[in-house]
């Protein structure tokens, strides 16, 4: 089922769609840059290795948690691409008129949960880095004041 009388609108690129796709690609590249900068220090668990050093270069020069910022940017830009673009792709393709619309709502809820979780995880990481690197961390935190968004937050 599709609520529009014509599916032609699904193949039109709107400004929102282009902004969303561009932001998704940019965020993916930033996230890959973060992983490359961290190297073997990247893990999915908040941990400190015996040979751990405080990473303060590349994207970590601008904000303390650029990987989280780029991850959230990816999620929100995907939302722009599919929920806002061109009159709402998900409505036009018809999924919101099917029993599967709950999957879209679950995805939206998971994005919000992820945003809250990453904010909390950043606080845990900051505490661990302060405990591990003490003065070095304090100096870094004073130099890089923003956790997620330069000049804002």
From TrEMBL:
Compartments, record wording: Endoplasmic reticulum membrane; Membrane
Membrane topology classification: Multi-pass membrane protein
Membership in a protein family: Belongs to the class VI-like SAM-binding methyltransferase superfamily. Isoprenylcysteine carboxyl methyltransferase family.
Presence of keyword Disulfide bond: no
Protein name: Protein-S-isoprenylcysteine O-methyltransferase
The keyword Mitochondrion is assigned to this record: no
Protein source organism: Crucibulum laeve
EC numbers: 2.1.1.100
Leading EC class: transferase
Transmembrane segments: 13-34, 72-90, 102-120
Catalytic activity entry: [protein]-C-terminal S-[(2E,6E)-farnesyl]-L-cysteine + S-adenosyl-L-methionine = [protein]-C-terminal S-[(2E,6E)-farnesyl]-L-cysteine methyl ester + S-adenosyl-L-homocysteine
GO BP: methylation
Keywords associated with the record: Endoplasmic reticulum, Membrane, Methyltransferase, S-adenosyl-L-methionine, Transferase, Transmembrane, Transmembrane helix
Record InterPro entries: ICMT_MeTrfase
């Amino acid at each position: 089922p599709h609520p529009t009388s014509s599916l032609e609108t699904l193949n039109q690129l709107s400004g929102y769609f282009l902004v969303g796709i561009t932001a998704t690609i940019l965020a993916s590249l930033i996230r890959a840059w973060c992983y490359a900068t961290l190297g073997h220090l990247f893990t999915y668990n908040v941990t400190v290795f015996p040979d751990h050093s405080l990473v303060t270069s590349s994207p970590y020069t601008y904000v303390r948690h650029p990987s989280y910022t780029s991850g959230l940017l990816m999620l929100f830009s995907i939302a722009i691409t599919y929920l806002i673009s061109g009159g709402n792709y998900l409505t036009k393709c018809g999924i919101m008129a099917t029993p599967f619309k709950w999957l879209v709502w679950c995805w939206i809820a998971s994005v919000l949960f992820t945003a809250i979780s990453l904010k909390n995880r950043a606080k845990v990481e900051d505490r661990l880095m302060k405990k591990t690197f003490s003065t070095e961390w304090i100096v870094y935190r004073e130099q890089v004041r923003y956790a997620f968004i330069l000049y804002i937050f």
